[in-house]
Design brief:
Elements: E1 2-3, H1 14-26, H2 36-56, E2 62-67, H3 70-85, E3 91-95, H4 100-113, E4 116-120, H5 130-136, E5 141-145, H6 159-166, E6 173-177, E7 194-198, E8 209-214, H7 239-254, H8 256-273, E9 279-281, E10 293-298, H9 303-312, E11 315-316, E12 318-319, H10 332-336, H11 341-345, E13 347-351, H12 358-377
Parallel strand pairs: 1-11, 3-4, 3-5, 5-6, 6-7
Antiparallel strand pairs: 2-8, 7-8, 9-10, 10-13, 12-13
The structure holds 4'-deoxy-4'-aminopyridoxal-5'-phosphate (PMP).
4'-deoxy-4'-aminopyridoxal-5'-phosphate binds at residues 69-71, 99, 101, 147, 151, 177, 179-180, 198, 200, 209, 323.
Length: 378
């Protein structure tokens, strides 16, 4: 098997599984229970929270909530802030190429609650420029949400510049969905008021993620119940998952630099091997693009046919993103970047992890060339 779909999900690391298994076996009490067994779990939960904040370098300023993943974190960030601060203003800015877990809550707030939501246009790389953000800012904006790295193209936003513009408006918060960014690009986490991520994108487990937020922020919760996680996320905290998340984060951040150099070489080799094929490279190849994600449009072939052909050989890639793969629609991310409709319908996404090898890239290339030739000859 050759797995080039790590933007959809990654293989959990053994250390992460070990942490999950031992906590599941040994610390199964409810971490909110007030007996000694529960208190022991509660202490472990707080140590995972502290480690998570320490790893991001924000323990003095930020707090962390463990929840089910980036989708839930993004929902809490958008709805929780909107409902809590609507007396300040009712305008929210998001980029037009956000993941649906940001776009859909924003659209829901507009449709059901009368918020004014602006989907900011992006440049041909898929970035929100500081000038674009500045042009849409005003005193009614309470939240700006712009992703760190795009899941379909790997495009990197300049979060420092964008957050600086946002912070000229003291009543506005800056949120970033960092699901595809953690451990892959360098980020100054302290410039973000809130950020979200998921364990399974960083070789952790599915079903866990976190929302990190400045301590002065107050949310209206999305889930109401027993009042766990500071009242913002009711439901018994999944201690083994929380511990597994901080372990995955530790490993991911520790190896980020070495991994980047390796993954860059994978992308370079892949691109060299594709030089003579009729493809369009949609991802930025300079410093505006993360080498972990490469979007390619096939100019003469259907992406779904190639993806299926590769899949039959045990080589796994996605068409645009895994979340929208079943829809035979052009990618809204690529359309927003000005890519033509045919190319936006026929994109494949190759996404790497540090576990991939140059040998796998070469095998991919030989299957890819052969498949194109075979389909061409039909
Ligand atoms: N944001 C981005 C950028 C993503 O790539 C994903 C996963 N495809 C999510 C949010 C949602 O993550 P999850 O499915 O783990 O909730």
């Amino acid at each position: 098997m050759i797995y080039f779909d790590s933007a959809a999900s990654t293989c959990p690391k053994k250390e992460v599984l070990d942490v999950f298994l031992s906590a599941s076996q040994d610390e199964y009490a409810n971490p909110s229970s007030s007996h000694a067994f529960g208190r022991s779990g509660g202490r472990l939960l707080e140590s995972a929270r502290k480690q998570t904040l320490d790893l991001f370098g924000v323990s003095a300023t930020h707090q962390a909530i463990f929840l089910s993943g980036a989708t839930e974190a993004n929902n809490l960030a958008l709805k929780g802030i909107a409902f809590s601060y609507q007396n300040r203003g009712k305008k929210i800015l998001v980029s037009a190429v956000e993941h649906p877990s940001v776009l859909e809550p924003a659209r829901y707030l507009a449709k059901a609650f009368g918020f004014e939501v602006v989907e900011l246009p992006v440049d041909s790389y898929g970035r929100v420029s500081p000038e674009t953000l500045q042009a849409h800012m005003d005193k009614d904006v309470i939240l700006v949400s712009i992703m760190g790295v795009n899941n379909e193209t790997g495009t990197i936003n300049d979060l420092k510049a964008l957050s600086q513009i946002t912070h000229r408006y003291p009543k506005c918060f800056f949120h970033s969905d960092l699901t595809q960014a953690i451990g892959k690009v360098e980020i100054d986490f302290s410039c973000l008021d809130l950020f979200s991520f998921s364990g399974h994108k960083i070789h952790g487990l599915k079903g866990v993620g976190a929302l990190i937020y400045k301590k002065n922020i107050r949310f209206v919760p999305v889930l109401h119940g027993g009042g766990q996680e500071f009242g913002y996320r009711s439901s018994t905290v999944a201690l083994p998952l929380a511990l597994s998340l901080s372990k995955a984060l530790e490993l991911s951040l520790a190896s980020a630099k070495n991994n980047l150099a390796h993954v860059k070489s994978l992308r370079e080799t892949l691109l060299q091997g594709l030089e003579n094929e009729e493809i369009r490279v949609n991802s930025p190849l300079d410093e505006a693009g993360s080498p972990y994600v490469l979007s390619l449009s096939l100019l003469r072939h259907k992406a779904s046919v190639i993806m299926e052909g590769l899949s039959e050989e045990g080589i796994y890639v996605s068409t645009s993103s895994a979340c929208s793969a079943s829809l035979e629609k052009p990618s809204y991310v690529l359309l927003s970047m000005g890519v033509d409709e045919d190319s936006a319908k026929n994109a494949i996404r190759v996404s790497f992890s540090e576990d991939n090898t140059l040998g796998e890239v070469r095998l991919f290339l030989s299957s890819f060339h052969r498949l194109l030739k075979e389909i061409h000859a039909r």
